[in-house]
Amino acid sequence: ELKVEQNPLFLSMQEGKNYTIYCNYSTTSDRLYWYRQDPGKSLESLFVLLSNGAVKQEGRLMASLDTKARLSTLHITAAVHDLSATYFCAVENYGGSQGNLIFGKGTKLSVKP
Amino acid sequence: DTEVTQTPKHLVMGMTNKKSLKCEQHMGHRAMYWYKQKAKKPPELMFVYSYEKLSINESVPSRFSPECPNSSLLNLHLHALQPEDSALYLCASSQDHLRVLQETQYFGPGTRLLVL
Questions:
Q1: 10 Å Cβ neighbour count for A105?
Q2: Which residues on neighbouring strands pair with residue B91, listed in sequence order?
Q3: Which residues in B lie closer than 8 A to residue A35 (C-beta atoms)?
Q4: What is the biggest distance separating any 2 CA atoms in chain A, rounded to whole angstroms?
Q5: How would you label A46-56 residue by residue, b for 16+ Cβ within 10 Å and e otherwise?
Q6: Rounded mean pLDDT of A67-95?
Q7: Which of B101, B96, B110 is nearest to B35 (CA)?
Q8: Is omega for the bond preceding A113 within 30 degrees of 0, making it cis?
Q9: Residue among B40, B41, B107 minimizing CB distance to A42
Q10: Which of A17, A80, A111, B3 has an alpha carbon within 20 to 30 A of B100's alpha carbon?
């Protein structure tokens, strides 16, 4: 059974600082997705990582995927308040219900001035 | 246009009511999904439709009944729900079922459901 673990679950950071969110998963998969969710809102797709070594950057966020280590990171550079949200990673499940996404528990990020 | 729309935005219903949630997309996507999200939890997959056929049912109770009238529409019919079914119900779509084409899912704004 595929399990997806994110850490930390809560992250409070100051503006201007850097930090990394980690996403580990338990079984083979080479597709990983990062989403952002603002309170009371839907999920917004941030990154789609489709192969080992994939790295994608958008603004202050950079995501990477190491399929051998079954690890993805979401790195935040020089955080700003607008980045405050909950970030989910999701991994495509190859077994069982193929093609569906298994989500991590989410990391609630709070960026303070 | 990468928009998935959902109606209604909010719904309050009693345990004996029958209601429906609606989802629509005009991106030509052939896979559509229903998720349930409880507060401070990740989304949990309920159903997947691929080419208008139900391809995944994640052991969802029969009081939830999905329907895909055409490739752009997805409904979720609700009957005899329980208070613990109160949640945010999210619809999503993707170009194809994820394993076939390498694309993400696009999520709608959700319907916040309260069962009294």
A1: 16
A2: B34
A3: 107
A4: 45
A5: bbbbeeeebee
A6: 92
A7: B110
A8: no
A9: B107
A10: B3
Higher-confidence position of B44 and B98 = B44
Q: Is any Cβ of chain A less than 8 angstroms from the Cβ of B56?
A: yes
Place of tokens 């839907």: A42
Question: CB distance from B91 to chain A under 8 Å?
Answer: no
B98 interface with A at CB cutoff 8 Å: yes
- What's the pLDDT band for B58 if we cut at 50, 70, 90? confident
Kindly state the DSSP code that residue A3 receives in the 8-state scheme.
-
B105/B34 Cα distance (integer angstroms): 11
Q: Locate tokens 């209601």: which residue?
A: B19
Q: What secondary structure does DSSP assign to B32-100, as a single string?
A: EEEEEE-TTS--EEEEEEETTEEEEE-S--TTEEEEEEETTEEEEEEES--GGG-EEEEEEEESS-TTT
In angstroms, the CA B88 to CA B85 distance is: 9
Predicted pLDDT at A71: 95
Contact A71, A91 (CB under 8 A): no
Sign of CA dihedral A58, B42, B85, B77: positive
Tell me, what amino acid is at B85?
Answer: D
